[in-house]
Design a protein that fits this description.
Number of helices: 13
Helix content: 25-40%
Number of strands: 10
CATH topology of the largest domain: Serine Threonine Protein Phosphatase 5, Tetratricopeptide repeat
Mean pLDDT: 76
Strand content: 15-25%
Number of domains: 2
Distance between the termini: 46 Å
Structural class: alpha+beta
Oligomer: single chain
Largest sheet: 10 strands, antiparallel, barrel
CATH class of the largest domain: Mainly Alpha
Order of helices and strands: HHHHHHHHHHHHHEEEEEEEEEE
Low-confidence stretches: 4-53, 198-208, 361-378
Strand order of the largest sheet: 1-2-3-4-5-6-7-8-9-10
């Protein structure tokens, strides 16, 4: 069973000790506070604290997590059952409930909780739920179901073979040809998967992006080719002035890149970016504070991300727009937007800036270019 966070018990159902990188990843994925382990465990709460826990769902969750860390899985299960009854859409609570039951050997009780974690959980909570379902079926000597759920786990981008190789829950399927096939991957592909796994367990993608070249992004799966934009950025014009800030985050199981733009004068805009597997293109829907709308579609090619579409002004007038985001070797991104009022025959610059990660020392502006002057729709 995978934990990536909790201290293991010494029995056949408990997870093996994980690397520090993996321990960190679940804390980030679940958004929960690290609680001291049993050696530093807090004393049993007094009546006043118990009353607070009983009334505050967040306090209940913290208490349940502490109990899991202290390996008091029975009491943790009781509290987690109360939480999911009160808040049935809390994927993190379902994940913990499945973990607590799994650790006690209650596989039949753990399975529906793991399933709920995959149904309503987000990000790695969902992925780890899939992994733990595979563990349950392996322990129940149902290899077909175990491999079905391992394959689903791999389909999300997870491919930590060291984790699988060291997990005692998979002892029943280790001699199966399907298990052995997981370890017969090409070394280059394996290194790429390891790099992606490393990146997705961090609180930011800064190291991941800083080490990547344009060719690296082209070679990544389409859903991950826009990850270079993730982070908190200052937008610096060719004159070296900050004209706005942009915060790009992952949402909805890492399938949406969400943009939150704030210009120098305080006006704002947001966009949702996602890969459309049917059209095999990325799409963006942008809405500005002033009512402007932009519809984009495009892909990463020739070392840059190209979006083309229509910029619709608040009054309904429309212009063609071409957005280009180029990741640079120094970690910056060159963002250029051009508009065409004649159907694409001629283009005029509407935005020209270099994104620099906030708190970065690389504050040099671009050379040769016009400063973005704002306009009705701000950016883009």
């Amino acid at each position: 069973m995978i934990d990536r966070f909790f201290t293991p018990r010494e029995n056949s159902l408990s997870p093996s000790i994980r690397s520090p990188r993996l321990l960190m990843s679940l804390g980030l994925a679940m958004g929960l506070l690290l609680i001291p382990q049993i050696a530093n465990a807090q004393p049993v709460p007094g009546p006043e604290v118990q009353e607070e826990v009983a009334q505050d769902p967040a306090a209940k969750m913290r208490r349940a997590q502490q109990l899991v860390n202290e390996q008091d899985f029975e009491l943790a299960e009781t509290i987690l059952e109360e939480i999911v009854e009160e808040r049935p859409t809390m994927g993190q609570a379902w994940f913990l409930l499945g973990y607590a039951r799994h650790a006690q050997g209650d596989l039949d009780g753990a399975l529906p909780a793991h399933l709920m974690a995959t149904e309503i959980g987000q990000g790695q909570t969902r992925v780890l739920g899939m992994y733990n379902i595979a563990c349950v079926y392996s322990l129940k000597n149902n290899p077909d179901k175990a491999f079905e759920w391992l394959d689903k786990t791999f389909a999300t981008g997870y491919n930590n073979l060291d984790q699988i190789a060291g997990d005692p829950d998979f002892e029943n399927i280790r001699e199966d040809e399907r298990y052995l096939a997981y370890f017969n991957t090409d070394e280059v592909e394996e290194e790429a998967n390891d790099e992606y796994e490393s990146a997705t367990t961090r609180s930011t993608y800064e190291d991941y992006v800083a080490d990547a070249t344009n060719d690296d992004w082209t070679s990544r799966p389409p859903r991950r080719q826009f990850d270079f934009w993730l982070g908190s950025w200052d937008a610096i014009d060719p004159e070296g002035k900050v004209v706005g800030t942009n915060v790009i985050t992952l949402r909805e199981g890492d399938n949406i890149l969400h943009e939150s733009w704030t210009s120098e004068d305080g006006t704002t805009g947001q966009s949702v970016n996602y890969y459309d597997p049917d059209a095999k293109k990325w799409r963006q829907a942008w809405v500005s504070q002033k009512g402007g709308v932009v519809h984009y579609k495009g892909n990463f090619k020739d070392g840059a991300f190209h979006y083309k579409g229509d910029n619709i002004k608040p009054d309904g007038t429309k212009v063609k727009t071409h957005c280009i985001l180029t990741p640079l070797a120094d970690g910056r991104i060159h963002h250029v937007i051009k508009h065409s009022a004649d159907g694409g025959k001629t283009w005029k610059p509407a935005f020209d800036a270099h994104y620099v990660r906030q708190n970065s020392q690389a504050k040099a502006g671009a050379k040769d270019g016009k400063r973005y002057s704002g306009g009705d729709d701000d950016m883009p």
